[in-house]
Amino acid sequence: MKVASIVLLTGIAMLAFAANSVLCRLALGHDEIDATGFTAIRLAAGALVLASIIAARRQKTSANQRGSWISASMLFLYAAAFSLAYRQLSSGTGALILFGSVQLTMLIAAHRTGERAAAPEWMGLILAFGGLTYLVAPGIAAPPALGAALMSVAGLAWGVYSIRGRGAQDPLAVTAGNFIRCVPMAIIAMLIAIRTVHVTPTGILLAAISGAITSGLGYVIWYSVLPHLTKTRAALVQLSVPIIAALGGAAFLGEKITARLAVASLLVLGGIALAVGVSSFAPKKS
After folding, report:
1. What is the pTM of this model?
2. Which of 10, 52, 129, 241 is 20 to 30 A from 215, comparing alpha carbons?
């Protein structure tokens, strides 16, 4: 895969991840749907669309190209904890906790497999984290303990899910298989929380878009570029998501774009550029 294609697809994946946060906040913030309902519809919509695409292409896939129950469990855990956490956390604090947890998970995994970050990568990581901390500083002091714990779990699960997907030979089939396996988990969760479930047409639409487009197809794209990124760089590029989500919040939720957001954006994006480098997306060979 050419460098330009990797950059483009990585950018699209990050936009999709950020859109999930905006869609979730739109749905839960306006009480259009509850967290369990949002998660269930999101996963079911993703499974339906991806299964339809797999069926239409009529291409046989081997068992190891159809996902796994472990990866599906990580996907469900991420989606469920993500929705539940955003009932309590502000968007900035939630994004920082989520992607901070993702980064730590992926960087620890990289270290355990012998992958060592170079000096520019460490400098970029520090710069990017500094930008995120600056962005959410007023609300970072004492987030609700339960919300913070749930978002940390979501970040851990997403980090593991991303790592497991790095070697996928058929990203579409693997993602479809994982989403399909999540459906019975979502049904069980709905039955457990049946008394608190409530939905509106708008809530269903927002959850369906999140599942079918920004989750299902977004994750397929992410899987396709992961083999071309080191674990360190895959972790770092995701630091752009809170900034993109904040900009999306300004556009769709009426949040103001402040000088603080502008400075934080420059720090985060500058840190990523320093750590990744346009000419060094491909993993180094040992």
Report:
1. 0.82
2. 129
